[in-house]
Design goal:
2 domains; Ubiquitin-like (UB roll); Gln_synt_N; alpha+beta
Length: 445
């Protein structure tokens, strides 16, 4: 760590860095930033930077407001969109109390705690997210809703198009920040894009997602358009998910891989999926944290609505991708409910905790779904034992309130704050009179 600190201090001097931004998130997953002068960085490393945590949503109770931000030198990067005018760098921070204890409501610490539990059992948790978002002409919207930058579709190549230039610029910028990109392409909706980040340990991935959102927003501004990670900005077009591929490793060995087993999936892999399925309804208020998230989950277009798994079945909640012969290290499972607006630190904590619970308790994996689950009738789904994911944020809150797994994983303070925050959002939403109601009822009633 000392070597890494020395590297940061030397780089700041050599590159003429004028500002260093210290980044962390609140419980909702909103990125927070405070800029310090280069001369203050060494002191921040040694003692942390004090601030009033009660000003950050969910971070502290008002009577324990003082907290310290400790920059993580391994996350130091120069921000490429700032260019050579007042060069600026950033580091993610861990938040502590004045006596040096991790702040219980720091989302990054929640994930570190859950990863430590996995490590105690000999596991390292790797994740690979596929992040979808929409590019719009502006943040303003008219009578017909937001206006996408193009009318292209899935994998379409639009020579000279906004999205094409946008993805190229974004990928280059992400690579400059040390974030490896695996794929980028146009998605199914007009103006919808997907960029897939290369797999990494879950803490690095969560940091990368927070950086990714910032990069995408900055490049959009630079190009005169607007990027949104809203789960379902347009009712007639697909929502934006963040399908995440996951695997557990024991040392250098993929714990999900077993040569000769069905789909090459080990007992540990099967139990992990069983844990995800059993606890999915309880964690949905975090993986799908907004009222709008449920418009995506229940709006069709391959979004999962029912609790089941399948081999390469895109209507299932959990998918086991096609196995690549002789590539046991690539064995993984894909969780398809999580959307692009989730707080990645909390969502990945709960997805890991659910999978670990399945391994610890030896959960049995139910039979796989071989049909398109959407095309089945309710009666057929009931007969096959497919329960549904929560149909609304209110429904998801009810599942979360009763969940020991979520309470234990998030810790009391984060658990209570998420519930408080989501209940308020549901109350605000429920009190609205929507255009739908006026259109349907005003003249008729």
């Amino acid at each position: 760590m000392d070597k890494q600190r020395d590297f940061v201090l030397r780089t700041i001097e050599e590159r003429g860095i004028k500002f260093v931004r210290l980044w962390f998130t609140d419980v909702v997953g909103t990125l927070k930033s405070v800029a310090i002068a280069p001369a203050e960085v060494e002191g921040a490393f040694n003692e942390g930077l004090g601030f009033d945590g009660s000003a950050i949503e969910g971070l502290t109770r008002s009577f324990e407001a003082d907290v310290l931000a400790h920059p993580d030198p391994t996350t130091f990067q120069i921000l490429p969109w700032r260019g050579e005018v007042d060069p600026t760098a950033r580091m993610f921070c861990d938040i502590t109390t004045p006596d040096g204890q991790p702040a219980v409501a720091d989302p990054r610490n929640v994930l570190k705690r859950t990863l430590a539990k996995a490590a105690d059992r000999g596991f390292t948790f790797y994740t690979h997210p596929e992040v979808e978002f929409y590019l719009l002409k502006s943040s303003k919207y008219g009578k017909n809703g937001p206006i996408p930058v193009d009318s292209a579709g899935y994998f379409d190549n639009v020579p000279g198009g906004t999205a094409h230039d946008f993805r190229r610029r974004s990928v280059r910028m992400l690579e400059d920040l040390g974030i490896s990109v695996e794929f980028s392409h146009h998605e199914a909706g007009p103006g919808q894009n997907e960029i897939d980040l290369r797999y990494a340990d879950a803490l690095t991935t969560a940091d990368n997602i927070m950086t990714f959102r910032t990069v995408v927003k900055e490049v959009a501004i630079e190009q005169g358009v607007y990027a949104t990670f809203m789960p379902k900005p347009m009712s007639e077009h697909p929502g934006s998910g963040m399908h995440t591929h996951m695997s557990l490793f024991e040392g250098d060995a993929n714990a999900f891989y077993e040569a000769g087993a069905k789909y090459q999936l080990s007992k540990i892999g099967r139990q992990f999926i069983a844990g995800l399925l059993k606890h999915a309804p309880e964690i949905t208020a975090v993986t799908n944290q907004f009222v709008n998230s449920y418009k995506r989950l229940w709006g069709g277009d391959e979004a999962p609505s029912f609790v089941c798994w399948g081999h390469n079945n895109r209507s299932a909640l959990v998918r086991v991708p096609l196995y690549k012969p002789n590539k046991g290290q690539s064995a993984r499972v894909e969780y398809r409910a999580i959307d692009s607006a989730a707080n990645p630190y909390l969502a990945y904590s709960l997805m890991l905790a659910a999978g670990l619970k399945g391994i610890e308790e030896g959960y049995e994996l139910p039979p796989e779904a071989e049909d398109n689950v959407w095309s089945l009738s309710d009666t057929e789904r009931r007969a096959l034992g497919y329960t549904q994911l929560p149909a609304s944020l209110d429904h998801a809150i009810q599942f979360m309130e009763e969940s020991e797994l979520v309470a234990e994983t998030l810790g009391e303070q984060v658990f209570n704050y998420v519930l408080l925050n989501k209940r308020q959002e549901w109350r605000d939403y429920r009190s609205q009179v929507t255009p739908f109601e006026l259109q349907k009822n005003l003249e008729m009633l």
